[in-house]
Amino acid sequence: MAGNTFGHLFRISTFGESHGKAIGVIIDGCPSNVDIDLEFIQAELDKRRPGQSKITTQRKESDTASVLSGVFEGKSTGTSLALLIPNEDQRSKDYDHNKDIFRPSHADYTYQEKYGIRDYRGGGRSSARETAARVAAGAVAKLFLKQKGIEIFAHVSSAGKVDAPNLPSEDLSKLLEIRESNIVRCADPATANEMIELIDSVRKDGDTIGGKVSCIIRNCPVGLGEPVFDKLHADLGKAMLSINAVHGFEYGSGFSGSEMRGSEHNDIFRPSEAGSGVSTSTNFSGGIQGGISNGMDITFRVAFKPVATIMHNQQTIDKEGNAAEIKGKGRHDPCVVPRAVAIVEAMAALVIADHYLRQAAYQH
Amino acid sequence: MAGNTFGHLFRISTFGESHGKAIGVIIDGCPSNVDIDLEFIQAELDKRRPGQSKITTQRKESDTASVLSGVFEGKSTGTSLALLIPNEDQRSKDYDHNKDIFRPSHADYTYQEKYGIRDYRGGGRSSARETAARVAAGAVAKLFLKQKGIEIFAHVSSAGKVDAPNLPSEDLSKLLEIRESNIVRCADPATANEMIELIDSVRKDGDTIGGKVSCIIRNCPVGLGEPVFDKLHADLGKAMLSINAVHGFEYGSGFSGSEMRGSEHNDIFRPSEAGSGVSTSTNFSGGIQGGISNGMDITFRVAFKPVATIMHNQQTIDKEGNAAEIKGKGRHDPCVVPRAVAIVEAMAALVIADHYLRQAAYQH
Amino acid sequence: MAGNTFGHLFRISTFGESHGKAIGVIIDGCPSNVDIDLEFIQAELDKRRPGQSKITTQRKESDTASVLSGVFEGKSTGTSLALLIPNEDQRSKDYDHNKDIFRPSHADYTYQEKYGIRDYRGGGRSSARETAARVAAGAVAKLFLKQKGIEIFAHVSSAGKVDAPNLPSEDLSKLLEIRESNIVRCADPATANEMIELIDSVRKDGDTIGGKVSCIIRNCPVGLGEPVFDKLHADLGKAMLSINAVHGFEYGSGFSGSEMRGSEHNDIFRPSEAGSGVSTSTNFSGGIQGGISNGMDITFRVAFKPVATIMHNQQTIDKEGNAAEIKGKGRHDPCVVPRAVAIVEAMAALVIADHYLRQAAYQH
Amino acid sequence: MAGNTFGHLFRISTFGESHGKAIGVIIDGCPSNVDIDLEFIQAELDKRRPGQSKITTQRKESDTASVLSGVFEGKSTGTSLALLIPNEDQRSKDYDHNKDIFRPSHADYTYQEKYGIRDYRGGGRSSARETAARVAAGAVAKLFLKQKGIEIFAHVSSAGKVDAPNLPSEDLSKLLEIRESNIVRCADPATANEMIELIDSVRKDGDTIGGKVSCIIRNCPVGLGEPVFDKLHADLGKAMLSINAVHGFEYGSGFSGSEMRGSEHNDIFRPSEAGSGVSTSTNFSGGIQGGISNGMDITFRVAFKPVATIMHNQQTIDKEGNAAEIKGKGRHDPCVVPRAVAIVEAMAALVIADHYLRQAAYQH
Predict the structure, then answer these.
(1) d(Cα A175, Cα A219) in Å, to the nearest integer?
(2) DSSP label at C88?
(3) Which pLDDT belongs to residue A278?
(4) Do C362 and A1 touch (CB under 8 A)?
(5) Which of A7, C232, C351, D54 is the most exposed place for a label (fewest CB within 10 A)?
(6) Strand, helix or coil at C159?
(7) What is the pLDDT of residues D1-38, one digit of tens each?
């Protein structure tokens, strides 16, 4: 109820501050007998960790996860699975100047007002460092979904106004390979170069820029999603909007669908061929109809605002409401989307795993 | 878990099919001593009910709500508050042709696959008729929020490609008056006319069109929203995405914020004046920072796809996967947004009421 | 969170006051394709309804349940299943004397203090009339469990100090027949007569008496119950303790087990015979080990206090805290256990159905 | 949903196996600005830890808790509060003989069947070692409740058939002093000696014995508890029944109340005196009426079965269902109640803290 818990049947609770001892997560509801591949979990964390490239923050965290419980001889036991990631490179001194001042478009003011106390070091609990715990838990969810043949793939589809073209129809493993071959994590190599150039130039200005991440979920069985309120896309939307800096979510045709006519937008069912499920000629529905997956690719897009910490002087106020001036210190990302790709995938995996189990519950 | 429940402390469970005996809602968590103004509840329902104008469906439902429990001498008692809305004008015969066929971009196929059974009459549980129960419950939430001075206002900001300009800074009661003076529920009268013309022409084509609803929540206290996962905008997003036909949600700067630089996007805090809370010079944050309300107007926008039922012949498949043809029957909306305004407000009220109580819980 | 909801996957929310328009329940989570046998539901309600015999309250309620949603052509559809039971024989006038006075050992004082308002007519929401909604929902749960072969049987094992002997090893259907052949619902005919005599004599004194109900759940599959906190017996205990007037719960060896030695108390596993599951030579564990069902009979016992309304003059206080005198009016039970048998079975069915679905969720 | 989470607003999730790296807990919902007194938390853990005396297991665990998050400068911040307790003295080898065999009246068989895998070392997750995490979390709840003046006191009221007399009316701090002066934790010194003698003799026999713990909650405000299903005693009952080895729960008059008449059992309200709340002449209600606290002492009693591990040869079966023989190894308690006192208090504190916040939520 205090908001550090996500999911129902595949449920996670995360903890940890940017400059505390450690961050971590308990998974309460991982089914038993899932292969817990620690190398895979670490590889996922590596995609999110800071210090990867010139266009990410230079904070050095190895983000090494260890399992505290719930795994026996390499397999999940069905009991609470706890993962711990110690903090290593805290430079809390960098944040002394934040103690009594509110950074613009950060959570300093609202945390102070809500709680009457705040751990101001590096943003405390409001820091995006918290998302490492999500990636670790999401990696476990992915290991579960892998057993079911469900694949999840996200990439950077926009940085500022630089937009990638629609992806070619392709194996997701192939797109993943392309995506991982560039530091901005865009699956279109030409656009990737443009994006990197943009972000690097923004960084040199001491400024930041927003972007978008697009995601595909493939081989999702028909039937996931619980009408009326827990529609699959509603839970995906909540998951994405809970990620730091996200300001928008759309699935299928999204905002552009609101400009279309029904006669264009309707996805026409195609007669089934032997051995194949039902399919539609277009996919404006984004793989979800009536809140329930229909077996087509689930597609959605997430908009991230620019990072609030910039290396410019900004006017603001202090705790007493007096005018003050602030300039960004610490180590920050000029653009979050390259690291956010892993977070989007993790949250998608958590939603799908949760709904997979929910659907299983009622298939008596 | 099966998805008919929304909220935690101010929690609703809805029931009812399009062509069943009745629809309704239980509110489990309405605080005691709220004035339950039945006329207000009815007035809210009247904004959503069918048959209001030439640009809405012609199904005739009075949507009269009665209270079954939880109210004593005009006030809520703190116990379950049940509201019942009988169905009146069912023409189930209109749907016999749907029994064995899947309408494109409807929930027929996914419900059939998920449940192995479906009430095909009027879409059964997947019908937007279900949202009447939300509006009734939302009206109760509004009565609670009214006691706290919190106001909620939505209007149609786009129909197809016809967009309303930004609203003038104005009392919400004044904007409400303008909005209710036209049948499309847009608070800009000139745009309203254009929109009505568009929708009417689409209707005459036997087609449908999408649109957008924009919403403002004013006088929300600082501190609502629970980081990390239950950020206020994440719960608003989920609420909106759970409404039939919604394909996108954005708050504050939204998707356009992803194209901006931090130096433009940051909302600069202004020194407090006597008697006033903190304010910011711009409001790209949409009244929410770190997932917590900051006292500024909360602003968001919701994208609705075009209604799937059109009066054209369409190719589709039957239950056996064979090719079939379908043509819309029944009475349907050419565009949902005029009636959706009441639903968006209701869901917003439910989210804010829930978070109001959550915040109260921890203010010991 | 306000307490009118029970269960997670097979979740019910109840509503209604003793003297309101109706009581009822929404089941959110009944799996699809369960045969909804209305006669069975009504027969269950008949076992709980008032006015059955000389040893129950004389209030006349037919307790006729109707289905408002969630059933199509006799089968559950997987969507919210709402059941409505109108109130018929309210004599609210009988309760005018309660308006400003607190009845001893009733909920008048605590409701008034908690909510600042109370529907004093017949106890309002605190009335045991609310349990009719539980019995209706429990009947649906039983119909689901019947498909799985799971049987639930309860009977009155004590009235005051009159205790029934242990039941013979017998088919539950046979025990049910015996139980229903007497008005006190004890499966031992000789004891039943003694109990009836006791209760009738207590009634003639204008007094009331407590009692106990014992319950057996048979053919429950191995594996239901979620350690650590949601042990099967913990959820059964909560369910039973939530029934009006219940003051105690024990399972298996219960309180007497606390006086035993491990060497006596341990249930020795017996080697499996072909075609049979594992069994134990004794069943002090009550069919549950480590919070998880082991396939043996689940056995528990529930203690009910005497009804608080007696036909004697009693000292008490009024709303201002002044001394006052009260004498029971209205129509009340001299002993609740004969009618409570149906409630105990219903709550047991709801717990088992919920845990059945929970277990199914993780059996991927 | 998988059962490792307890509470709603003051919610805990625990993790850890008997022989894993560590056990611990996340508290999601501790209000901000609670003084987190680590010495107090440790002192609570010391009352539960093994190796305290000759009548407890000889396993040596210091049970040292450290805070990983949620505390800043000695105070709770309102964000997830994580506590970690490393395991130290695992002798996993002691459990090799359990790998393929099911210990009678343990959770070996049911875990194996439920999950298809089990960490057999020391009982894995089914070990009572898990309760250390509850005691740590309960200590935080106590620190919160202390700020509200609410006190919780439990003691051993029975060991086997040795029963303590009713406690004198006395300050709880005084009773606590007496209780802590003897190793069995009974607040009646004469009975304590008898109990110790009994347990020691049982221990010498290689056997075990059950017992009971009684608990008093004092200064609980009027109004805690949510009818209908979340009655305060129902949640206390569930909490207690979730503790390993508990087989029964009763509050107020409990099982003996079921043998009484209403005219004896009713608690008569006494006119208020200046400056005092309402009180009753007797307290058979155990401080709870209609599921809601009435301001009187809340009293309940918990029955523990004898520990299943005994140092005798016992018949059992192996994983294949074949007859086998087992003899207890490892280090075990001859009677759990002396250590269970701290667990009962912790769980009571968690329930009261949760309901305190729930009540606060609705007191708008």
Answers:
(1) 16
(2) -
(3) 82
(4) no
(5) D54
(6) strand
(7) 899 999 999 999 999 999 999 999 999 999 999 999 99
pTM confidence score = 0.97
Q: Tokens 């079921």 — which residue?
A: D258
A173 burial level (CB within 10 Å; 0-12, 13-18, 19+): exposed
Q: Is residue B257 part of a domain?
A: no
- CATH code, domain carrying B199: 3.60.150.10
The answer to whether D118 contacts chain A (CB < 8 Å) is: yes
Q: Is D362 exposed, middle or buried (0-12, 13-18, 19+ CB in 10 A)?
A: buried
C-alpha distances (whole Å) from B75 to each of B20, B34, B38, B79, B135 are: 30, 5, 11, 11, 19
Residue B126 covered by a domain: yes
Number of domains in chain D: 1
Residue A257 CB partners (closer than 8 Å, separation 6+):
A265, A284, B210, B247, B248, B303, B305, B306
CA dihedral D171, D172, D178, D183 (to 10 degrees): 170
Residues of B282-299 as b/e, b for ≥16 C-beta within 10 angstroms? ebbbbbbbbbbbbbbbbb
Residue A228 near residue B3 (C-beta atoms within 8 A): yes
Can you give the pLDDT at residue A94? Answer: 66
pLDDT of residue C274: 63
* Nearest 10 degrees: Cα torsion B34, B37, B43, B44: 10
**Which chain B residues have a beta carbon less than 8 Å from that of C20?**
68-69
**Cβ-Cβ contacts under 8 Å for C338 (sequence gap 6 or more):** C52, C53, C55, C56, C156, C183, C184, C185, C199
What is the pLDDT, as a whole number, of residue B94? Answer: 66
| Residues 212-271 (A) with a CB less than 8 A from some CB of C | 227
CB < 8 Å & 24+ apart, contacts of B38-42: B38/B65, B38/B67, B40/B139, B40/B142, B40/B143, B41/B65, B41/B83, B41/B136, B41/B139, B41/B140, B41/B143
Give the model's pLDDT for residue C250. Answer: 98
Residue the block writes with tokens 């040869």:
D313
- Which residue's structure tokens are 């105690």? C248
Hey, what are A262's tokens? 């029904």
DSSP label at residue C330:
S
Q: Which residues of D touch C333 (CB under 8 A)?
A: none
Judge whether B268 lies within some domain: no
Alpha helices for chain D (secondary structure H): 38-48, 108-115, 131-147, 172-179, 189-204, 232-241, 254-257, 262-265, 337-362
Alpha-carbon distance of B162 to C225, in angstroms, equals 56
- Domain membership of residue D278 (yes or no) is no
Residue with tokens 């005693």: D233
Segment D151-173, tens digit of pLDDT: 999 999 999 999 999 999 899 99
Neighbours of D320 (CB within 10 A): 9
A134 and chain D in contact, CB less than 8 A: no
Q: Residue A351 is part of which domain span?
A: 5-252+287-362
Compute φ and ψ for A271, nearest 5 degrees: -55, 140
Question: What residues contact A275, with CB distance under 8 A and at least 6 apart?
Answer: none
Contact between D4 and C303 using a beta-carbon 8 Å cutoff: no
What's the token pair of residue B182? 């036209």
Classify A341 as helix, strand or coil.
Answer: helix
ipTM of predicted assembly, 2 dp = 0.97
**Inter-chain CB proximity C5 and B21 less than 8 Å:** no
Nearest 5°: the CA angle C287, C288, C289 is: 130
CA pair distance D127, B270, nearest whole angstrom: 57
Three-class DSSP category at D6: strand
Q: How many CB atoms lie within 10 A of CB A161?
A: 12
Of C1, C8, C314, the CB nearest to D268: C314
Q: Which chains reach chain D with 3 or more Cβ–Cβ distances below 8 angstroms?
A: A, B, C
- CA C304 to chain D, closest CA, distance in angstroms equals 5
Token pair of C258, please?
């606390």
CB neighbour class for B231 (10 Å; exposed up to 12, middle 13-18, buried from 19): buried
Task: Report the DSSP beta bridge partners of residue D306.
Answer: none
